[in-house]
User: Fold this.
Amino acid sequence: MRITVHIEDASPEIAHRLLDLLAEHPGALTTESLDPAWTEERALRLLRELPTRAATVIRLAAAGGGWVDAEHLRTADGKGLQGHTAAITQALKRGVRNGWWPEATVKPIEAVYNSEVAGPQRALGYQLADDHVAAVFRAAVTRFDAEADQ
Assistant:
């Protein structure tokens, strides 16, 4: 028999009682922790969940070696970046709720600002977390595009 237990925000009392119960049955417990790293499957799932504008940020960053300049994303009036990463954040939360990736999975892309300027400013661009994430999302974009062509 296999029993899977997923506990979030449990009181210390519940956690101790559960651990005590498990201690009464040595050898019956195996633990498995989910790796929070981005995989091609997770990246593809995220792309499917995103609205077009948010997916475009990730697509362009993946194609650009992990970076996309904000000017490539702005509309003709110089605006148009509001909400890009908010949709990604919401999709990440939805993915945790639905069990698509663990809660420790980090946002794959972040806005980059000029660190020498204090106060509100426009984003310089968007950067994928690291080279691994860029490679994973490049592969996921390729699969996503192939699905769209079918």
User: Anything to note?
Assistant: The chain has one domain: 40-149.
